[in-house]
Amino acid sequence: MSDVTERTSDPLIAADRVTGTAVYNRAGEKLGTVDNIMIDKVSGKAIYGIMSFGGFLGIGENQFPLPWSQLSYDKRLGGYVVDLDKRVLEGAPSYARDDRFEWTPEYGRSVDKYYRVPSYWD
Amino acid sequence: MSDVTERTSDPLIAADRVTGTAVYNRAGEKLGTVDNIMIDKVSGKAIYGIMSFGGFLGIGENQFPLPWSQLSYDKRLGGYVVDLDKRVLEGAPSYARDDRFEWTPEYGRSVDKYYRVPSYWD
């Protein structure tokens, strides 16, 4: 299916091909990429986009879970746009890529609270 | 994140770990596995689960796109349940895993029509 998902005009993307989809700020500058999506098993709905910012902000290769509501897909750019200030991202919850990271309701709530969105976990 | 997604009690699953989640029939017999999920880029909602049935039904390793509404997550089983007759599956739209398969609105509509669900593409 490699043909399909590389076409930005296609409305669907295979979950295993999400990695590398670009994330931009409102000014259209590339911030990083979506590395993964956390999906609710029951509803099939994306709850968090897991982003990395590359070297941007000196954050290195940390993984930043963003509530999905913070990500808007921009067909023209072929990627997601976040309307977040640099300082907000700098202080955002993240974890090291190599961590055997454990996703808990408490962690999820702290992420949702940070971005001031209704919590998935309540 | 490998620890997390292997716990069936966790409500979230990383998109890149979906591969291999079991699919059962109503009798609790394992039919096959979810190999992938096709996600709407904008809404982040799962639209199709891409299944394979292994050797079951002699269908070999074909890929079967199922409208997500046909899949119910069963926490006890730790996998998805489909309420579909063997004959329905035998005649369902599928494509070879190695095909450079092209997902078109026409193909999507044929899948939705086959399973008699409102079409994502209309």
TL;DR?
Chain A has helices at 2-5, 86-90, 105-114, and strands spanning 12-14, 21-24, 30-40, 46-52, 64-67, 71-74, 79-82.
Topology:
The structure is a homodimer of 122-residue chains.
Chain A lengths: L1 H4 L6 E3 L6 E4 L5 E11 L5 E7 L11 E4 L3 E4 L4 E4 L3 H5 L14 H10 L8
Parallel strand pairs in A: 2-7
Antiparallel strand pairs in A: 2-3, 3-4, 4-5, 6-7
Plain-language structure description:
The structure is a homodimer of 122-residue chains. Chain A is of the alpha+beta class and 122 residues long. Chain A has helices at 2-5, 86-90, 105-114; strands spanning 12-14, 21-24, 30-40, 46-52, 64-67, 71-74, 79-82. A six-stranded mixed β-sheet of chain A has the order 5-4-3-2-7-6, with no helix packed on it. In chain A, a hairpin with a 5-residue loop joins strand 2 and strand 3. Mean pLDDT of chain A is 83; it is low at 1-8. The interface between A and B is large, with 36 and 35 residues.
Keyword list:
homodimer; 122 residues; alpha+beta; six-stranded mixed beta sheet
SS-based class of chain A: alpha+beta
Unreliable parts of chain A: 1-8
Largest interface, Cβ cutoff 8 Å: A-B, 36 and 35 residues
Largest sheet of chain A: 6 strands, mixed
* Rg calculated over all Cα atoms of chain A: 14 Å
Helix residue percentage of chain A: 10-25%
Query: Strands across the major sheet of chain A, in which order?
Result: 5-4-3-2-7-6
Number of helices of chain A: 3
How many strands of chain A? 7
Mass-distribution shape of chain A: globular
Please tell me the overall pLDDT of chain A: 83
Distance between the termini of chain A: 37 Å
**Fraction of residues in β-strands of chain A:** 25-35%
Specify the oligomeric state: homodimer
Order of helices and strands of chain A: HEEEEEEEHH
